[in-house]
Protein backbone atom coordinates (compact mmCIF):
# COMPACT_ATOMS: atom_id res chain seq x y z
CA UNK A 1 0.00 0.00 0.00
CA UNK A 2 1.43 3.36 -1.04
CA UNK A 3 1.27 6.03 1.69
CA UNK A 4 0.62 9.45 0.16
CA UNK A 5 -0.97 11.21 3.14
CA UNK A 6 -1.05 10.79 6.91
CA UNK A 7 -3.58 12.13 9.38
CA UNK A 8 -2.29 13.46 12.70
CA UNK A 9 -4.53 13.56 15.79
CA UNK A 10 -3.54 14.60 19.32
CA UNK A 11 -5.44 14.31 22.57
CA UNK A 12 -7.41 17.48 23.31
CA UNK A 13 -5.24 20.09 25.02
CA UNK A 14 -2.22 17.77 25.10
CA UNK A 15 0.37 20.54 25.21
CA UNK A 16 3.19 17.99 25.56
CA UNK A 17 2.46 16.99 21.96
CA UNK A 18 2.91 20.49 20.51
CA UNK A 19 6.68 20.24 19.83
CA UNK A 20 6.14 16.92 18.05
CA UNK A 21 3.27 17.93 15.76
CA UNK A 22 5.26 20.11 13.39
CA UNK A 23 8.26 17.76 13.57
CA UNK A 24 6.15 14.80 12.45
CA UNK A 25 4.72 16.88 9.61
CA UNK A 26 8.19 17.93 8.46
CA UNK A 27 9.48 14.35 8.71
CA UNK A 28 6.60 13.13 6.54
CA UNK A 29 7.04 15.98 4.05
CA UNK A 30 10.71 15.09 3.60
CA UNK A 31 9.58 11.62 2.53
CA UNK A 32 6.94 12.80 0.08
CA UNK A 33 3.96 12.24 2.40
CA UNK A 34 1.41 14.97 3.05
CA UNK A 35 0.60 15.58 6.71
CA UNK A 36 -3.04 16.50 7.38
CA UNK A 37 -4.00 17.63 10.88
CA UNK A 38 -7.26 17.03 12.67
CA UNK A 39 -8.95 20.41 13.20
CA UNK A 40 -8.65 20.64 16.99
CA UNK A 41 -5.11 19.24 16.85
CA UNK A 42 -4.06 21.95 14.41
CA UNK A 43 -5.42 24.57 16.80
CA UNK A 44 -2.68 23.59 19.27
CA UNK A 45 -0.02 24.66 16.77
CA UNK A 46 1.18 28.27 16.50
CA UNK A 47 1.31 28.09 12.68
CA UNK A 48 -2.00 26.26 12.24
CA UNK A 49 -3.03 28.44 9.29
CA UNK A 50 -0.17 27.04 7.23
CA UNK A 51 -1.29 23.45 7.77
CA UNK A 52 -3.96 21.50 5.94
CA UNK A 53 -6.71 20.48 8.37
CA UNK A 54 -9.79 18.21 8.29
CA UNK A 55 -12.32 17.04 10.85
CA UNK A 56 -12.11 13.45 12.08
CA UNK A 57 -14.64 12.05 9.61
CA UNK A 58 -12.95 13.63 6.60
CA UNK A 59 -9.52 12.64 7.92
CA UNK A 60 -10.54 8.98 7.79
CA UNK A 61 -11.73 9.34 4.20
CA UNK A 62 -8.72 11.19 2.83
CA UNK A 63 -5.62 9.74 4.53
CA UNK A 64 -3.71 6.47 4.17
CA UNK A 65 -2.61 6.16 7.80
CA UNK A 66 -3.58 7.98 11.00
CA UNK A 67 -1.11 8.81 13.77
CA UNK A 68 -2.68 9.36 17.21
CA UNK A 69 -0.74 11.13 19.96
CA UNK A 70 -2.22 10.60 23.41
CA UNK A 71 -3.74 7.68 25.27
CA UNK A 72 -6.12 4.83 24.61
CA UNK A 73 -9.19 7.09 24.82
CA UNK A 74 -7.93 9.27 21.97
CA UNK A 75 -7.24 6.21 19.85
CA UNK A 76 -10.68 4.75 20.62
CA UNK A 77 -12.33 7.93 19.39
CA UNK A 78 -10.53 7.70 16.05
CA UNK A 79 -11.04 3.92 15.84
CA UNK A 80 -14.79 4.41 16.12
CA UNK A 81 -14.70 6.97 13.28
CA UNK A 82 -12.72 4.52 11.15
CA UNK A 83 -15.19 1.75 11.96
CA UNK A 84 -18.23 3.91 11.16
CA UNK A 85 -16.70 4.71 7.77
CA UNK A 86 -15.88 1.04 7.08
CA UNK A 87 -12.32 2.09 6.36
CA UNK A 88 -9.16 -0.02 6.22
CA UNK A 89 -6.97 2.95 7.22
CA UNK A 90 -4.34 1.71 9.71
CA UNK A 91 -3.92 3.60 12.97
CA UNK A 92 -0.68 4.12 14.90
CA UNK A 93 -1.06 5.11 18.55
CA UNK A 94 1.76 6.96 20.32
CA UNK A 95 1.50 7.06 24.10
CA UNK A 96 2.37 10.19 26.09
CA UNK A 97 1.90 8.60 29.50
CA UNK A 98 2.49 5.10 30.69
CA UNK A 99 2.36 2.38 28.06
CA UNK A 100 -1.17 1.87 26.76
CA UNK A 101 -2.94 -1.32 25.74
CA UNK A 102 -3.79 0.32 22.41
CA UNK A 103 -1.29 3.19 22.19
CA UNK A 104 1.71 0.90 22.44
CA UNK A 105 4.25 2.96 20.51
CA UNK A 106 6.47 5.08 22.76
CA UNK A 107 7.95 8.41 21.68
CA UNK A 108 11.41 6.89 20.96
CA UNK A 109 9.66 4.32 18.74
CA UNK A 110 7.61 6.90 16.82
CA UNK A 111 9.81 7.48 13.78
CA UNK A 112 11.03 3.87 13.39
CA UNK A 113 7.37 2.80 13.50
CA UNK A 114 6.37 5.45 10.95
CA UNK A 115 9.26 4.42 8.70
CA UNK A 116 8.11 0.80 8.87
CA UNK A 117 4.61 1.91 7.81
CA UNK A 118 5.96 3.87 4.85
CA UNK A 119 8.17 1.04 3.59
CA UNK A 120 5.48 -1.61 4.08
CA UNK A 121 7.26 -3.49 6.86
CA UNK A 122 5.07 -2.50 9.82
CA UNK A 123 3.43 -5.11 12.00
CA UNK A 124 -0.30 -4.50 11.56
CA UNK A 125 -2.85 -6.45 13.59
CA UNK A 126 -6.50 -6.70 12.70
CA UNK A 127 -8.71 -6.10 15.73
CA UNK A 128 -12.36 -7.16 15.72
CA UNK A 129 -14.93 -4.41 16.24
CA UNK A 130 -18.56 -4.59 17.35
CA UNK A 131 -21.62 -3.26 15.56
CA UNK A 132 -24.57 -2.41 17.78
CA UNK A 133 -28.08 -1.90 16.44
CA UNK A 134 -30.72 -0.50 18.77
CA UNK A 135 -34.24 -1.56 17.82
CA UNK A 136 -36.96 0.88 18.84
CA UNK A 137 -40.65 0.32 18.09
CA UNK A 138 -39.70 -2.66 15.95
CA UNK A 139 -37.30 -0.74 13.66
CA UNK A 140 -33.53 -0.06 13.64
CA UNK A 141 -33.18 3.26 15.42
CA UNK A 142 -29.41 3.69 15.94
CA UNK A 143 -26.23 1.97 14.82
CA UNK A 144 -22.87 2.29 16.55
CA UNK A 145 -19.39 0.85 16.18
CA UNK A 146 -17.08 0.01 19.09
CA UNK A 147 -13.57 -1.37 19.30
CA UNK A 148 -13.65 -2.19 23.03
CA UNK A 149 -17.19 -2.64 24.24
CA UNK A 150 -20.86 -1.84 24.31
CA UNK A 151 -22.11 -1.36 27.88
CA UNK A 152 -25.67 -1.27 29.15
CA UNK A 153 -25.81 0.25 32.60
CA UNK A 154 -28.03 2.02 35.08
CA UNK A 155 -28.02 5.69 36.06
CA UNK A 156 -25.87 6.63 39.05
CA UNK A 157 -28.65 6.46 41.66
CA UNK A 158 -30.89 3.90 39.96
CA UNK A 159 -31.64 0.50 41.42
CA UNK A 160 -30.34 -2.77 40.03
CA UNK A 161 -31.48 -3.38 36.44
CA UNK A 162 -32.97 -6.47 34.82
CA UNK A 163 -31.74 -7.54 31.37
CA UNK A 164 -32.97 -10.44 29.25
CA UNK A 165 -30.00 -11.81 27.28
CA UNK A 166 -30.24 -14.04 24.21
CA UNK A 167 -27.67 -15.34 21.76
CA UNK A 168 -29.31 -15.41 18.37
CA UNK A 169 -32.80 -16.81 18.94
CA UNK A 170 -31.83 -18.74 22.08
CA UNK A 171 -32.63 -17.23 25.45
CA UNK A 172 -29.59 -17.43 27.76
CA UNK A 173 -30.38 -15.73 31.07
CA UNK A 174 -31.88 -12.82 32.96
CA UNK A 175 -29.09 -10.64 34.31
CA UNK A 176 -29.94 -8.69 37.46
CA UNK A 177 -26.96 -6.42 38.00
CA UNK A 178 -25.64 -2.88 37.70
CA UNK A 179 -25.18 -3.51 33.99
CA UNK A 180 -23.75 -5.72 31.26
CA UNK A 181 -20.50 -5.38 29.29
CA UNK A 182 -20.32 -6.88 25.80
CA UNK A 183 -16.62 -6.73 24.90
CA UNK A 184 -14.21 -7.69 22.16
CA UNK A 185 -10.89 -9.40 23.01
CA UNK A 186 -9.25 -5.99 22.56
CA UNK A 187 -11.70 -4.58 25.12
CA UNK A 188 -11.10 -7.42 27.54
CA UNK A 189 -8.36 -5.35 29.22
CA UNK A 190 -10.60 -2.29 29.57
CA UNK A 191 -13.87 -2.03 31.56
CA UNK A 192 -14.28 -5.82 31.35
CA UNK A 193 -11.05 -6.35 33.29
CA UNK A 194 -12.04 -3.84 35.97
CA UNK A 195 -15.35 -5.68 36.35
CA UNK A 196 -13.63 -9.02 36.94
CA UNK A 197 -13.84 -10.40 33.41
CA UNK A 198 -11.25 -12.57 31.65
CA UNK A 199 -8.30 -11.34 29.62
CA UNK A 200 -8.66 -12.67 26.07
CA UNK A 201 -5.87 -12.44 23.50
CA UNK A 202 -6.81 -10.04 20.68
CA UNK A 203 -6.37 -12.67 17.96
CA UNK A 204 -9.04 -14.94 19.46
CA UNK A 205 -12.36 -14.79 17.61
CA UNK A 206 -14.72 -14.23 20.54
CA UNK A 207 -17.16 -11.93 22.31
CA UNK A 208 -17.24 -11.56 26.11
CA UNK A 209 -20.44 -11.10 28.12
CA UNK A 210 -19.71 -9.78 31.60
CA UNK A 211 -22.37 -8.71 34.13
CA UNK A 212 -21.41 -5.74 36.31
CA UNK A 213 -21.85 -6.48 40.03
CA UNK A 214 -24.48 -9.20 39.48
CA UNK A 215 -27.07 -9.87 42.19
CA UNK A 216 -26.57 -13.62 41.75
CA UNK A 217 -22.94 -14.65 42.29
CA UNK A 218 -23.34 -17.59 39.92
CA UNK A 219 -23.94 -15.10 37.08
CA UNK A 220 -20.40 -15.15 35.69
CA UNK A 221 -18.64 -13.83 32.56
CA UNK A 222 -19.19 -15.93 29.44
CA UNK A 223 -17.05 -16.11 26.28
CA UNK A 224 -18.96 -16.90 23.08
CA UNK A 225 -18.04 -17.23 19.37
CA UNK A 226 -17.59 -13.95 17.51
CA UNK A 227 -20.11 -15.16 14.93
CA UNK A 228 -22.87 -14.80 17.54
CA UNK A 229 -25.44 -12.03 17.75
CA UNK A 230 -26.11 -10.88 21.31
CA UNK A 231 -29.61 -9.56 21.99
CA UNK A 232 -30.23 -7.57 25.15
CA UNK A 233 -33.76 -6.59 26.13
CA UNK A 234 -33.96 -4.36 29.22
CA UNK A 235 -36.95 -5.14 31.43
CA UNK A 236 -37.76 -1.58 32.35
CA UNK A 237 -40.52 0.89 33.04
CA UNK A 238 -40.81 4.59 32.20
CA UNK A 239 -39.29 5.61 35.54
CA UNK A 240 -36.16 3.52 35.01
CA UNK A 241 -32.98 5.11 33.68
CA UNK A 242 -30.79 2.88 31.51
CA UNK A 243 -28.04 3.85 29.12
CA UNK A 244 -26.01 2.15 26.43
CA UNK A 245 -22.50 3.46 25.77
CA UNK A 246 -19.88 2.56 23.19
CA UNK A 247 -16.17 2.57 24.07
CA UNK A 248 -17.03 5.10 26.77
CA UNK A 249 -17.09 7.71 23.99
CA UNK A 250 -20.78 8.13 23.22
CA UNK A 251 -24.17 6.64 23.99
CA UNK A 252 -27.80 7.37 24.77
CA UNK A 253 -30.71 6.57 27.07
CA UNK A 254 -32.77 3.46 26.39
CA UNK A 255 -36.55 3.38 26.40
CA UNK A 256 -39.00 0.64 27.44
CA UNK A 257 -39.30 -1.92 24.64
CA UNK A 258 -35.85 -1.20 23.18
CA UNK A 259 -33.61 -4.09 22.17
CA UNK A 260 -29.85 -3.80 21.67
CA UNK A 261 -28.35 -6.25 19.16
CA UNK A 262 -24.57 -6.59 19.14
CA UNK A 263 -22.49 -8.56 16.66
CA UNK A 264 -19.08 -8.52 15.01
CA UNK A 265 -18.67 -5.55 12.67
CA UNK A 266 -18.00 -6.24 9.03
CA UNK A 267 -14.67 -4.40 9.10
CA UNK A 268 -11.78 -4.94 11.51
CA UNK A 269 -9.54 -2.14 12.76
CA UNK A 270 -5.96 -2.27 11.48
CA UNK A 271 -3.68 -1.39 14.39
CA UNK A 272 0.04 -0.69 13.91
CA UNK A 273 2.05 -2.37 16.65
CA UNK A 274 5.75 -1.99 17.51
CA UNK A 275 7.82 -5.03 16.66
CA UNK A 276 9.81 -4.53 19.87
CA UNK A 277 7.36 -6.14 22.32
CA UNK A 278 4.72 -8.85 22.44
CA UNK A 279 1.18 -8.70 23.78
CA UNK A 280 2.23 -10.50 26.96
CA UNK A 281 5.05 -8.01 27.50
CA UNK A 282 2.45 -5.25 27.40
CA UNK A 283 0.34 -7.15 29.95
CA UNK A 284 3.31 -7.67 32.25
CA UNK A 285 4.17 -3.97 32.08
CA UNK A 286 0.64 -2.59 32.46
CA UNK A 287 -0.58 -5.07 35.07
CA UNK A 288 2.76 -5.30 36.89
CA UNK A 289 2.71 -9.09 36.82
CA UNK A 290 5.44 -10.63 38.95
CA UNK A 291 6.13 -7.41 40.85
CA UNK A 292 5.84 -7.08 44.62
CA UNK A 293 3.14 -4.67 45.69
Strand-pairing-aware structural class: alpha+beta
How would you write the strand order of the largest sheet? 3-2-1-4-5-19-6
**N→C terminal distance:** 46 Å
Total helices: the number is: 7
Helix content: 10-25%
Which percent range describes the beta-strand content? Answer: 35-45%
| CATH class placement of the largest domain | Alpha Beta
Describe this structure in words.
The protein is α+β, with helices and mostly antiparallel strands and 293 residues long. The protein folds into 2 domains: 5-128 and 268-287, Rossmann fold (3-Layer(aba) Sandwich), CATH 3.40.50; 130-264, Sandwich (Tumour Suppressor Smad4), CATH 2.60.200.30. The chain is 20% helix and 36% strand. It is built from 7 helices and 19 strands. It has a 7-stranded mixed β-sheet with strand order 3-2-1-4-5-19-6, sandwiched between helices. The chain has a 6-stranded antiparallel β-sheet with strand order 8-7-18-15-10-11. The protein has a 6-stranded antiparallel β-sheet with strand order 14-13-12-9-16-17, with no helix packed on it. Helix 3 crosses helix 4 (72-85). The mean pLDDT is 92.
